[in-house]
Amino acid sequence: MEDFIATLVWFAVTSWRMTTVVIASTVLAVGLAMAIPPFTGPYGIALVLFGFGVGMWWHSKALEIKARKA
Q1: Is the pTM of this model over 0.90?
Q2: How far is it, in rounded angstroms, from Cα 9 to Cα 61?
């Protein structure tokens, strides 16, 4: 499990697409939590995890397109 988490962290640090989406989803989650009282911590965590998934998907699609061109 530690190797899996370390791999995800390394992937997030080295991929600008992942970092961009995670930062954007974190800022959105904090903004929603401040603006909408029912938007609590679990919703924010879910939003950031969703952003993490979107970042992984975006990066995988970019790698797939790059591989097709080569």
Answers
A1: no
A2: 19
